[in-house]
Amino acid sequence: MSSTVKAGVAAVGLAASALMALVASAHHSFATFDPLHPRTLAGTIREVQWVNPHVWLVITVPRDGGADDWTLEAPGVAEVKRNGWSRDSFKTGDKVSITIAPKRDGSHGGAYLSAITASGQTLGATKNPITTLTPDSARGK
Questions:
Q1: What is the predicted pLDDT for the residue at 83?
Q2: Within 10 Å of residue 93's Cβ, how many Cβ atoms?
Q3: Which domain covers residue 6, as residue numbers?
Q4: What CATH number is attached to the domain comprising 63?
Q5: Sign of the alpha-carbon torsion through 129, 29, 116, 39
Q6: Mean per-residue pLDDT, 81-85
Q7: Distance of alpha carbon 70 from alpha carbon 49, whole angstroms
Q8: What is the pLDDT of residue 23?
Q9: pLDDT-based confidence at 106, cuts 50/70/90?
Q10: What is the SS3 assignment for the chain?
Q11: How many domains does the chain have?
Protein backbone atom coordinates (compact mmCIF):
# COMPACT_ATOMS: atom_id res chain seq x y z
CA MET A 1 0.00 0.00 0.00
CA SER A 2 1.43 3.38 -0.98
CA SER A 3 2.11 6.10 1.57
CA THR A 4 -0.55 8.28 -0.11
CA VAL A 5 -3.20 5.60 0.35
CA LYS A 6 -2.08 5.02 3.97
CA ALA A 7 -2.30 8.75 4.66
CA GLY A 8 -5.79 8.86 3.12
CA VAL A 9 -6.97 5.90 5.20
CA ALA A 10 -5.51 7.50 8.33
CA ALA A 11 -7.24 10.82 7.55
CA VAL A 12 -10.61 9.11 7.04
CA GLY A 13 -10.16 7.20 10.31
CA LEU A 14 -9.26 10.37 12.19
CA ALA A 15 -12.22 12.23 10.73
CA ALA A 16 -14.59 9.39 11.66
CA SER A 17 -13.23 9.32 15.21
CA ALA A 18 -13.66 13.07 15.58
CA LEU A 19 -17.23 12.86 14.28
CA MET A 20 -18.09 10.04 16.69
CA ALA A 21 -16.65 12.03 19.62
CA LEU A 22 -18.71 15.06 18.60
CA VAL A 23 -21.91 13.01 18.38
CA ALA A 24 -21.23 11.36 21.76
CA SER A 25 -20.56 14.66 23.49
CA ALA A 26 -23.67 16.21 21.97
CA HIS A 27 -25.79 13.32 23.23
CA HIS A 28 -24.40 13.69 26.74
CA SER A 29 -24.75 17.46 27.02
CA PHE A 30 -26.52 18.53 30.18
CA ALA A 31 -26.75 22.20 29.22
CA THR A 32 -30.53 21.96 29.09
CA PHE A 33 -30.64 21.28 32.86
CA ASP A 34 -29.96 23.69 35.74
CA PRO A 35 -27.98 21.91 38.48
CA LEU A 36 -27.63 25.15 40.45
CA HIS A 37 -31.33 25.17 41.27
CA PRO A 38 -32.38 21.62 42.19
CA ARG A 39 -36.07 21.09 42.78
CA THR A 40 -37.88 18.39 44.71
CA LEU A 41 -41.17 17.12 43.30
CA ALA A 42 -43.71 15.17 45.33
CA GLY A 43 -46.18 13.25 43.26
CA THR A 44 -47.30 9.99 41.73
CA ILE A 45 -45.47 7.88 39.16
CA ARG A 46 -47.53 7.88 35.95
CA GLU A 47 -45.08 6.05 33.69
CA VAL A 48 -41.70 4.33 33.76
CA GLN A 49 -39.75 3.65 30.58
CA TRP A 50 -36.97 1.16 31.41
CA VAL A 51 -35.00 1.71 28.19
CA ASN A 52 -31.60 2.80 26.92
CA PRO A 53 -29.99 5.21 26.42
CA HIS A 54 -31.93 6.69 29.36
CA VAL A 55 -34.55 5.50 31.81
CA TRP A 56 -37.50 7.91 31.79
CA LEU A 57 -39.95 8.65 34.58
CA VAL A 58 -43.17 10.62 34.25
CA ILE A 59 -44.46 11.94 37.56
CA THR A 60 -47.79 13.69 38.11
CA VAL A 61 -47.32 16.58 40.52
CA PRO A 62 -50.40 18.18 42.10
CA ARG A 63 -50.75 21.96 42.12
CA ASP A 64 -53.52 24.38 43.02
CA GLY A 65 -56.34 23.73 40.60
CA GLY A 66 -54.89 20.66 38.91
CA ALA A 67 -51.75 18.65 38.28
CA ASP A 68 -48.77 18.71 35.94
CA ASP A 69 -46.88 15.81 34.39
CA TRP A 70 -43.10 16.10 34.65
CA THR A 71 -40.85 14.05 32.36
CA LEU A 72 -37.57 13.10 34.02
CA GLU A 73 -34.43 11.77 32.38
CA ALA A 74 -32.31 9.30 34.32
CA PRO A 75 -29.13 7.47 33.28
CA GLY A 76 -29.28 4.24 31.29
CA VAL A 77 -30.46 0.87 32.58
CA ALA A 78 -26.99 -0.53 33.38
CA GLU A 79 -26.03 2.53 35.38
CA VAL A 80 -29.22 2.74 37.43
CA LYS A 81 -28.92 -0.99 38.19
CA ARG A 82 -25.39 -0.35 39.52
CA ASN A 83 -26.93 2.29 41.76
CA GLY A 84 -29.50 -0.02 43.32
CA TRP A 85 -32.47 0.35 41.01
CA SER A 86 -34.58 -2.54 39.78
CA ARG A 87 -37.54 -2.63 37.43
CA ASP A 88 -39.72 -2.51 40.55
CA SER A 89 -38.08 0.55 42.13
CA PHE A 90 -40.74 2.79 40.61
CA LYS A 91 -44.20 1.49 39.72
CA THR A 92 -47.18 3.28 38.23
CA GLY A 93 -49.24 4.73 41.07
CA ASP A 94 -46.35 4.95 43.58
CA LYS A 95 -46.13 8.11 45.68
CA VAL A 96 -42.57 9.47 45.45
CA SER A 97 -40.40 12.44 46.21
CA ILE A 98 -37.85 13.09 43.43
CA THR A 99 -35.12 15.72 43.32
CA ILE A 100 -34.24 16.94 39.86
CA ALA A 101 -32.07 19.44 38.02
CA PRO A 102 -34.95 21.26 36.28
CA LYS A 103 -34.94 22.23 32.63
CA ARG A 104 -33.59 25.73 32.08
CA ASP A 105 -36.50 26.67 29.81
CA GLY A 106 -39.01 26.22 32.63
CA SER A 107 -40.86 23.34 30.98
CA HIS A 108 -41.98 20.42 33.12
CA GLY A 109 -38.92 18.21 32.89
CA GLY A 110 -35.51 17.62 34.36
CA ALA A 111 -32.59 15.35 35.08
CA TYR A 112 -33.13 12.83 37.85
CA LEU A 113 -30.84 13.43 40.83
CA SER A 114 -32.31 11.31 43.65
CA ALA A 115 -35.57 9.98 45.01
CA ILE A 116 -37.30 8.56 48.02
CA THR A 117 -39.46 5.69 46.77
CA ALA A 118 -42.86 4.58 48.04
CA SER A 119 -41.09 1.95 50.17
CA GLY A 120 -38.86 4.62 51.75
CA GLN A 121 -35.73 3.57 49.86
CA THR A 122 -33.42 6.36 48.77
CA LEU A 123 -32.17 5.96 45.23
CA GLY A 124 -29.52 8.58 45.00
CA ALA A 125 -27.23 10.31 42.62
CA THR A 126 -25.50 8.31 39.94
CA LYS A 127 -22.21 8.75 38.15
CA ASN A 128 -23.98 10.87 35.56
CA PRO A 129 -22.14 14.27 35.34
CA ILE A 130 -25.24 16.30 36.09
CA THR A 131 -25.93 14.33 39.27
CA THR A 132 -22.48 14.85 40.73
CA LEU A 133 -22.66 18.61 40.43
CA THR A 134 -23.25 20.69 43.51
CA PRO A 135 -23.96 24.41 43.35
CA ASP A 136 -20.35 25.07 44.43
CA SER A 137 -18.77 22.65 41.94
CA ALA A 138 -20.90 24.02 39.10
CA ARG A 139 -19.59 27.49 39.96
CA GLY A 140 -16.02 26.19 39.88
CA LYS A 141 -15.42 26.35 43.65
A1: 86
A2: 8
A3: 1-30
A4: 2.40.50.140
A5: positive
A6: 88
A7: 14
A8: 42
A9: very high
A10: CCHHHHHHHHHHHHHHHHHHHHHHHHHCCCCCECCCCCEEEEEEEEEEECCCCCCEEEEEEEECCEEEEEEEECCCHHHHHHCCCCCCCCCCCCEEEEEEEEECCCCCEEEEEEEECCCCCEECCCCCHHHHCCHHHHCCC
A11: 2
Of the pLDDT bands very low, low, confident and very high (cuts 50, 70, 90), residue 26 is: very low
pLDDT band for position 124 (cuts 50, 70, 90): confident
Contact between 59 and 44 under an 8 Å Cβ cutoff? The reply is yes
Residues 23, 43 within the same domain: no
pTM of the model: 0.71
Residues 6+ apart with CB under 8 A from 73: 54, 56, 109, 110, 111, 112
Residues 110 and 76 in one domain: yes
